[in-house]
Amino acid sequence: MTVLAATAPGVYPDMPEDVYHRDLAASSTVLKALLKDPAAKVDYQRRNPSAPKRAFDLGSAAHTMLLGRGSEIVEVPFADYRKKDAQALRDAAYDADQIPLLTRELAQVQAMAGAVRQHPDAGVFIAAPGDPELSIWWTDPATGVPCRARFDKAIRDRRGRLVIVDVKTTIDASDYGFGKAAASFGYHQQEAHYTAGAVAVGLDDDPGFVFIAVEKDPPHLVNVVQLDGTALETGRRRNERALAIFAECTATGVWPGYPDGITEISLPSWATREDTW
After folding, report:
1. Rounded CA separation 155/7 (Å)
2. How far is 121 from 107, CA to CA, in rounded Å?
3. What's the whole-model pTM score?
4. Do residues 212 and 222 make contact, with C-beta atoms less than 8 angstroms apart?
5. CA dist 247 to 34, 130, 139, Å?
6. Which CATH architecture has domain 10-256?
7. Digit-coded pLDDT (tens) for 10-57
8. Stretch (H or E) spanning 22
9. Which of 82, 96, 112, 229 is the most buried (most CB within 10 A)?
């Protein structure tokens, strides 16, 4: 697989998704991973990206349906993938960079997209004129690290302010449930990274950001949320740490794995609870 060098800084409205993901610049996904996994693993994965997981198909399809950009959706007219004919259609779709959906899954995604469009606030963001799947590249001013981001949609409000719209499919779109998901999946780091990029490329001095959360299960409730200042500042600080790691690894050419030597470790607390005396 050919991996691109970092793309020149700027705004790219029509960047193909596969080309975007082959670039070596620091994405939000990479920065989040650098605070969780050994740098050697993160570097390998960014140079050898794995195929999309089937678990992501519903979310990817919802994005395509709502934003009008993304991989083509292909219906697999079966109840499941136990039959070889269904498996063959699924595999052919993946080979063609399409999203295969069983008939019930297609109906589910259509219902999710319909719920978003009918929501009084989410529907306005989705219908507003703007740029779907907008890609940007910039250089982090503090570390010199080349960075990239891809917005679900970039729109302008009535005052002309840039608003980045991000669609998330979720199990629980409640304020509490989505807050937990934001902490677990690093949505606060994503927002901080995206808004920093928007400023760096001159799209806006103070961009806005909204998440549209839609539940996967009926009745597909929708919640439009914004993270507070504390969450965003936490995301910024985490990104600063990750960018420093990225810069150090790039400068030295060393992406370390686990520590050398022999490390003494303990069992997790739950493993010894029954036998504590």
Report:
1. 23
2. 23
3. 0.91
4. yes
5. 11, 33, 11
6. Alpha-Beta Complex (3.90)
7. 999 989 888 898 899 999 999 999 999 999 999 999 999 876 677 789
8. helix 17-22
9. 112
